[in-house]
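Appendix B, Record 12. Input sequence as logged:
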Amino acid sequence: MREISAGGVVIRKEDSVWWMAAIELPLAANAVSDPRKRAVRSKTKAVLCLPKGLIDPGEKALDAALREVREETGIIAAPIAKLGDIKYVYVRTWGDGQRVFKLVSFYLLRYESGDIDDIAEEMRVEVGRAKWLLLSDAAQLLAYGGEKQMARRALEYIEAHAGM
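Logged structural output:
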């Protein structure tokens, strides 16, 4: 099974400081509470990650990244550059328990408008809340290795393009 997704590292400069948009997964999505499972674990600490999601049929990766950012954070962003792809394998913990090869293309995006966390109520199943993080701290705060790498690349891009 293969899944192809796209996501965004949205940056914003405010008072000479760079910020990055991130989402917290809802705590319920991070808990394993099925009594038939051997190991029951409940995460009480929020899991921070980048907005991302599946590319719809006929949709381009960049368009999917912009859409996912809008749906999951409430903000509108403009593309700057492609940061790269991350690849990983996971096993579905729901439904069929199938092994999935996942490819996610990430784009560096600049904030244009909107209020962070102004998202549709039906998105609260996927997103506990969206918030701004200091870009300089993002790699330490994000939960997943590939996403940490994308945050570091965003910071490197900004440092290399000081006139942004």
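Residues 11 and 134 are 9 Å apart (CA to CA).
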